[in-house]
Automatic annotation (TrEMBL):
This is Alcohol dehydrogenase GroES-like domain-containing protein. Keywords: Metal-binding, Oxidoreductase, Zinc. Gene3D superfamilies: Medium-chain alcohol dehydrogenases, catalytic domain, NAD(P)-binding Rossmann-like Domain. One of its GO terms (cellular component) is cytoplasm. Belongs to the zinc-containing alcohol dehydrogenase family. Its cofactor is Zn(2+). InterPro entries: ADH-like_C, ADH-like_N, ER, GroES-like_sf, NAD(P)-bd_dom_sf.
Length: 355
C-alpha cells in the first residue's frame, strides 16, 4: 500500500481547507483502518472551521465517514473483517476510568464513548474523514447495509444519528398517532421528518425558508409530513392548533441554532409537551419559565444516538427507503465546500466522494 494519502486539513481557523498529502495512519492493535469512500459536511464542520471547538492544528475535518475496512487490529473483537462496509461515529476510544465511563458501566454494564471525558472526537478535535483513510474504534463503528450507498450512509453518521437520537427522547413519552413537529428542514430535519413518519407520528415540517419547505416534500410519499408550515406566516400558530385540535404539539425537534426559532417552538407545545433542541448557538438558549412551569413542559438534551441505536436506525433506513437529499462533490472541490454550504439555495447535505 502506498503510505501516503490525499487529505484536506484545517491549517488556520476561518481559512479554506488546504489539500495535501499525509501519511496513512498506522492501524493499532485495537483499531480498524477504514478506506473512506464518502464523507459528509454539516453545520458542525462550519463551527469547527470557525474555531468553536478548540483543537490542535493542522487537523483533518469531517465526522461523517462511510467506507470499507482495509485492516483489523490484532486485538479487535466483534467479528470485523476486511471488506466490511461501515460507517463511523465521531466519538471514540473511551478511557473506561472517568466519571462518565463509570456511570455508563454502572447503568448498562458497558462504556459509552459519547460520555467519556477523555473521548476522541474525529473531525472535531482529532483527525476525521476528509482523507482517503482514517482510524476507527470498533465500539463506535457500525455495519452499513448493502441497500445503503456510501454517499447516503455518510450523512447518517451525524445528521441521521442526531435526528434518530432526538426522536428516541420523544418516543419514550409520546405515543404514535400524536402530532410532533420538526423545525428547520435541512440535512438533519429532512431525515427527522422521515423517521417521525415511519414511527407513526402525525408530522409537521416547519421552516421559514421556501427551500426548506420544498425539501420537506421531496421524500417518498409514505414518508411525507402531514403538514408543512411557514413559521413566519401570520397564521402559523393557528395551523398548528388546527392539526392538533387546539391542544398544541406533543413534541418538537428543533434542527436549527436560531435562538428565536427555539423560543417560538416552546410556545407551540401542548401541556406536558417535549422540546428537543439540537442547534448549538454561540449565545445561550432562552426559554419562557412560566410556560415551562404552568404547562409542565420538558426540554430534553440530545447528543447523538448510541452505536446500538444507530445500528437499528440503519435497518429502518434500508427497509423504508429513507434518504438524504445529497449534493455530491469530488475531492478537489473540498476547498469550496463552505461557500457552497452557505449559498442560500443549498438544500440537504453536501457529500464528498473520497474514492
Amino acid at each position: 500500500m502506498n503510505r501516503l494519502m490525499r487529505a484536506a486539513q484545517i491549517v488556520e481557523y476561518e481559512k479554506p481547507y488546504e489539500l495535501c498529502e499525509r501519511a496513512i495512519p498506522i492501524c493499532g492493535d485495537t483499531d480498524l483502518l477504514i478506506e473512506i469512500h464518502a464523507a459528509g459536511f454539516c453545520h458542525s464542520d462550519l463551527q469547527v472551521l470557525q474555531g468553536q471547538f478548540a483543537a490542535s492544528l493542522p487537523m483533518v475535518p469531517s465526522h461523517e465517514p462511510a467506507g470499507k475496512i482495509v485492516q483489523v487490529g490484532a486485538q479487535v473483537r466483534g467479528g470485523w473483517k476486511v471488506g466490511d462496509r461501515v460507517g463511523v461515529l465521531n466519538f471514540k476510544n473511551a478511557c473506561g476510568d472517568c466519571v462518565g465511563c463509570r456511570q455508563c458501566t454502572r447503568r448498562s454494564s458497558r462504556t459509552d464513548p459519547r460520555f467519556c471525558e477523555k473521548r476522541e472526537m474525529a473531525g472535531f478535535k482529532h483527525d476525521g474523514a476528509f482523507a482517503n483513510f482514517m482510524l476507527a474504534d470498533p465500539e463506535t463503528t457500525v455495519h452499513l447495509p448493502d441497500e445503503v450507498s456510501f454517499e447516503q450512509g455518510a450523512p447518517l453518521m451525524c445528521a441521521g444519528a442526531t435526528a434518530w437520537g432526538a426522536l428516541q427522547k420523544i418516543r419514550s413519552d409520546v405515543k404514535p398517532g400524536e402530532a410532533i413537529a420538526v423545525v428547520g428542514i435541512g440535512g438533519v430535519g429532512h431525515l427527522a421528518i422521515q423517521f417521525a413518519k415511519q414511527m407513526g407520528y402525525r408530522t409537521v415540517a416547519i421552516d421559514n425558508r421556501p427551500v426548506g419547505r420544498q425539501l420537506a416534500l421531496e421524500v417518498s410519499e409514505h414518508l411525507r409530513p402531514d403538514l408543512v408550515i411557514d413559521s413566519a406566516a401570520n397564521n402559523a400558530d393557528e395551523q398548528i392548533l388546527k392539526i392538533t385540535s387546539g391542544e398544541g404539539l406533543a413534541g418538537i425537534i428543533v434542527c436549527t441554532d436560531s435562538i428565536q426559532a427555539t423560543s417560538w417552538s416552546l410556545q407551540q407545545l401542548g401541556n406536558k409537551g417535549i422540546l428537543v433542541p439540537l442547534g448549538l448557538p454561540k449565545d445561550k438558549w432562552q426559554f419562557d419559565s412560566e410556560a415551562m412551569v404552568f404547562r409542565e413542559l420538558t426540554i430534553k438534551g440530545s447528543y447523538v444516538a448510541s452505536t446500538k441505536d444507530v445500528e437499528s436506525m440503519l435497518q429502518i433506513v434500508a427497509e423504508n427507503g429513507i434518504s438524504s437529499h445529497v449534493t455530491l462533490l469530488d475531492f478537489d472541490q473540498i476547498p469550496s465546500v463552505v461557500e457552497m454550504y452557505l449559498d442560500k439555495s443549498m438544500r440537504g447535505r453536501l457529500v464528498i466522494r473520497m474514492s
